[in-house]
Structures are given as C-alpha cells and as structure tokens.
C-alpha cells in the first residue's frame, strides 16, 4: 500500500478510535455492527480527519463507515484512497425496528458494490497523468482532485438514488480527498478491482 494512504489511514483510525463510537441502536444480529456513528470533538476535525457529519438535501447525515478502495486504469495509472459513507441515523433506527438489523448486511454489500463501480467508472473517465509540464505541481494535483471528485459524485449519484428508493435509507458516499493517491507512472496496486 502506498505510504501516503497508509499514513492518512493511521491518522483517521487514530482519530476515530479516539472518538467515542456509539452504536446507533443495539443490533439484533451480532454479526452486523458496521453502521456505527462516529462522534468527534469538533476541535479534532481538520483537513486530515473526515467530518463526522455531512448535509445532503437539507438532511444531516452521519459518518457510519470509512471504506478503502483502489483501482488501476492500466499498468501506469490508478487511484487509491478512502471513501466515506454517511447515513441518516433516523432512517437507520426506523429500518432496524421495521426490518431488523440483519438487513444491513445486504445494504453493506450493495453499498460496497456501488462505491466500487463508481471508482472504476471515475478512473476510466479521467486523465490521471496530471499537467504534462509540471505533473507534481500543487495546481496540477488540485485540478486532478477536483476533477476526480466531480466525476465520482456525478457517477455515483444515480446508483445512490436507486439504492435510496429501494431501501428508504438516505446515504451519501464521498471520496476523502486528502487520502487519495494518484498513480501516473506505474500503478502499484496488487489488483485490478476495488479492494477493501
């Protein structure tokens, strides 16, 4: 794994581990404990630590999971980093009561598939070589991050809408931009598909 991504993961893990984690509700099925709300002291949130909340369509969503993923476009280009899953905790409560906690195992698998598809499509659709004159310049890096974010959000939007209509669970999946690492001169991922 890339040292930069590993360092960010360690920072995020340490920050989230230092936060009090509190299950949204006691799980009916002990296997499913993945939808946990991360609570952080606002003073701990910085550019290197993801926000514990995100507003979507006027609703406040809470960070419930940090996923890792990476994909190679070809032998030279690829992307890896962290992706943040936000969910409406009121929806989670309601679904646990009406359908039981075991349903979240199915939701997780579907959410992972949605994120993997969006990552693959995004990487296919953007140029990862950066500025041909100054590929490592801050401006080139920022342009690549902005393009990746816009493409990812646009790619995943329809799949999230379909998921929400089917499950009644409001979610959003966002790339954690400080964690993203772009390969442009040799993709070092050990696989062709999004990993966990």
Highlighted features:
two-stranded antiparallel sheet; 21% strand; disordered C terminus; disordered N terminus; 7 strands; elongated; alpha+beta; 196 residues
Name the quaternary structure: single chain
H/E order of the elements?
HEEEEEHHHEE
Mean of the pLDDT scores?
77
Poorly predicted regions:
3-34, 39-43, 191-196
Number of strands: 7
In terms of structural class, how would the helical and strand content be classed? alpha+beta
Strand content bin: 15-25%
Shape: elongated
Rg value: 17 Å
Number of helices: 4
How would a crystallographer describe the biggest sheet?
5 strands, antiparallel
Distance between the termini: 12 Å
Helicity range: 40-55%
Give an overview in words.
This protein is an alpha+beta fold. The chain is 41% helix and 21% strand. It contains four helices and seven strands; from the N terminus they run αβββββαααββ. Strands 3, 4, 5, 6 and 7 form a five-stranded antiparallel beta sheet that branches. Strands 1-2 form a two-stranded antiparallel ribbon. A hairpin with a 2-residue loop joins β3 and β4. α3 runs antiparallel to α4 (138-167). Residues 3-34, 39-43 and 191-196 have low confidence and may be disordered.
